[in-house]
Amino acid sequence: MSQENGTITSNVPAQSEDVVMENGVPTIIASAGVNTMSSESKLHTISILVENAPGVLARVSHVFARRGFNLESLAVSRTEDITVSRMTVVVAGDDDQFKQIGNQLFKLIDVIKVIDHTRDDLVGRELALIKIRVESAQTRSEIIELAELFRAKIVATDPQTMMLEVTGKADKVDAIQKMLEPYEILELVRTGLIVLTRGPKQT
Fold first, then answer.
1. Which of 30, 39, 74, 166 has the fewest Cβ atoms within 10 Å of its own Cβ atom?
2. What's the rounded mean pLDDT across residues 34-53?
3. Which is higher by pLDDT, 5 or 177?
4. Tell me, what CATH number does 64's domain have?
5. Residue 95 CB burial class (10 angstroms; 0-12, 13-18, ≥19)
6. Higher pLDDT, 65 or 98
């Protein structure tokens, strides 16, 4: 791998025409079949602040399931306030359906706030752990080079496997997953998207 005039090049051949370089990172842009919806669907990113109590996640998920929504991503964690959890949900649906789901969520006693991020300037990230089978020294070398190209970390290794940690936008995670598929991915786990708005605005 080398860097010339701000452009990163790699000795590893491209394994998909969908993978392009964006800000020095291999990325899938509007690639069919990988985290994309049909032209009739629209993705909404919302944050739901809820009381940190047992059963809340199940009740919120039930609202989406009852109305037939397809959850593309769901991430849940405690916030700076230990009594409050934040759910970041990426959901597919048209605008009218989205308004209906917002009204339904507000009716839940545990829900404190529902934020629609459609017009927000967001910083969004996703994390993935990917375990790959390693059958030769050449394979190990190629995977190390791919990890460097995607700015991923090697977090575990043994004679038969390697595990990578990659953080970034969802399309970056999609891209490294696609590039690693020929090496046999044994296991993969993704956190789902988490977001915060830029600047002093608090959501």
1. 39
2. 70
3. 177
4. 3.30.70.260
5. exposed
6. 65
Q: Indicate whether 50 pLDDT > 60.
A: yes
Cβ atoms of 43 and 37 within 8 Å: the answer is: yes
Whether residue 50 is found in the same domain as residue 90: yes
Q: Which domain holds residue 139?
A: 2-30+123-196
Residues 160 and 179 in one domain: yes
Report, as an integer, the average pLDDT of 144-152. Answer: 95
In a domain, 55, yes or no: yes
Question: Is pLDDT above 50 for 6?
Answer: no
Backbone angles phi, psi at 105, to 5 degrees: -65, -40
Cβ count near 51 (within 10 Å): 13
Q: How high is the pLDDT of residue 2?
A: 46
Q: Do 55 and 100 lie in a common domain?
A: yes
pLDDT the model gives residue 120 = 86
Choosing from 119, 146, 171, the residue where a domain stops is 119
115 with 175: CB under 8 angstroms?
A: no
DSSP 127: E
Which amino acid is residue 86, in one-letter code?
R
Residue 37 lies in a domain: no
**For residue 72, which phi and psi values (nearest 5 degrees)?**
-80, -30
The pLDDT-based confidence of 104 (bands split at 50, 70, 90) is confident
Same domain, yes or no: 115 and 47 = yes
